[in-house]
Design brief:
six-stranded mixed β-sheet; alpha+beta; 39% helix
């Protein structure tokens, strides 16, 4: 039972332990259940931890920051799965796994519990990107596409202006500002002059 629980606590699944030990899954589940609850609790606690950035721990929790990052990238956090296990040094490792198209993405953080919710340290690049304050920035910039007909009818000055616009793209997160085209009409109530 101790070996089963140690393997489960270390991140192995019930099926993996059953196959490695050559024993029925039902026997492994009996000993694994309390450890699986412990792992689930650790994952929940890690979500409430505060990621450590180069300038110190954040005020927001890991869950708040990851939720913002997922929203900015168009991912659904409800479809992601959280897990946690103890590594060889006895530290908790929190894992977030999600699908993006046909890719399965996985982020890992080290969770250090304390009285203030604990601290979270990224263990891989994907995890570091999710807690990066610039994670909400657009992945690409929009640039205009011109057809050959547009270029043939243009003057040299118009072509130079277009090239300058392409050289300094406007990020997607900045709203376009447009000038009003006409004065707003003033509507009067019926029967008044």
């Amino acid at each position: 039972p101790r070996e089963i629980q140690a393997r489960i606590r270390g991140g192995a699944s019930v099926e993996q332990v059953s196959q490695e030990a050559g024993i029925p899954i039902a026997k492994v589940e009996r000993f694994a259940y309390p450890v699986l609850l412990e792992r689930s609790r650790a994952a929940d606690m890690a979500k409430k931890g505060h990621p450590v950035r180069p300038d110190g721990p954040t005020v927001e929790t890991l869950l708040e920051i990851v939720t913002q990052a997922f929203r900015a990238r168009g991912h659904n956090l409800d479809e992601a799965t959280w897990d946690a296990w103890r590594d060889d040094d006895g530290h908790w490792v929190a894992e977030l796994q999600w699908q993006a198209g046909r890719s399965t993405n996985t982020a890992h953080w080290r969770y250090q519990p304390d009285a203030h919710g604990g601290t979270i340290t990224a263990l891989d690049d994907i995890a570091a990107d999710r807690v990066d304050p610039d994670c909400g920035r657009p992945l690409r910039y929009l640039t205009p596409v011109y057809s050959a007909r547009d270029v043939d009818d243009s003057t040299e000055a118009e072509i130079a202006e277009r090239r300058a616009a392409v050289a300094s793209p406007i990020p997607l997160d900045q709203p376009a500002v447009s000038e009003p085209t006409a004065e707003p009409a003033i509507l009067e109530a019926p029967g008044t002059e």
